[in-house]
Amino acid sequence: MVNRHDFPLMAGPLRAFSGGEYLGKTNIDTVASGEKFKLYFGADKRIEVKYRQIKRKKSEGWWSKTVDFEWAIKFKNHSPEKVRINVIDAMPKLGNDELSLKSVKFSPKPVNDFEKDENRLVKWMIELDPGEEMEITVSF
């Protein structure tokens, strides 16, 4: 958010409303005019998020062990407005050079390359219209 007023917002309790709807209560530090700041009110009950494991299969051969994983994250917008959601998930960190991730598949395609991220985070930006739902799947 940006303080769009010609005066600073003073440190202390803040009650936030949007379109006449009460969003919640939090505390803020002093925010100068034009300064960016973040507010956090906890999980938005109007956005439904469900995580589910689809597959986890272990197999062993003479020289190798294989584990297949697949999971999905489903989102549904119960809000009367379009929403933008930044999704961040973590891919496994491999402990040694003998381990590797093969056949990594994402649907939809993420906005970054997790292999170039030092924390191996994978990111998506999704937009949902009112009542719309979508699912992200990851497999390797």
Walk me through this protein's architecture:
The chain is mostly beta strands and about 140 residues long. The protein has no helices and eight strands. A four-stranded antiparallel sheet has the order 3-4-8-6, with no helix packed on it. Strand 3 and strand 4 (about 65-75) form a beta hairpin. The radius of gyration is 21 Å and the shape is elongated. The mean pLDDT is about 90.
Draw up the topology in text.
Elements: E1 12-18, E2 21-28, E3 47-60, E4 65-77, E5 83-90, E6 105-107, E7 121-128, E8 133-139
Antiparallel strand pairs: 1-2, 3-4, 4-8, 5-7, 6-8
What can be said about this structure in brief?
The protein has 140 residues and is an all-beta fold.
Fill in the keyword field for this structure.
140 residues, mainly beta, 4-stranded antiparallel β-sheet, two-stranded antiparallel sheet, 49% strand, elongated
Q: What overall form do the CA principal axes indicate? A: elongated
Runs in which pLDDT lies below 50 for 5 or more consecutive residues are: none
* String of helices and strands: EEEEEEEE
The CA-CA distance between the termini, in Å, is 37 Å
Strand order of the largest sheet: 3-4-8-6
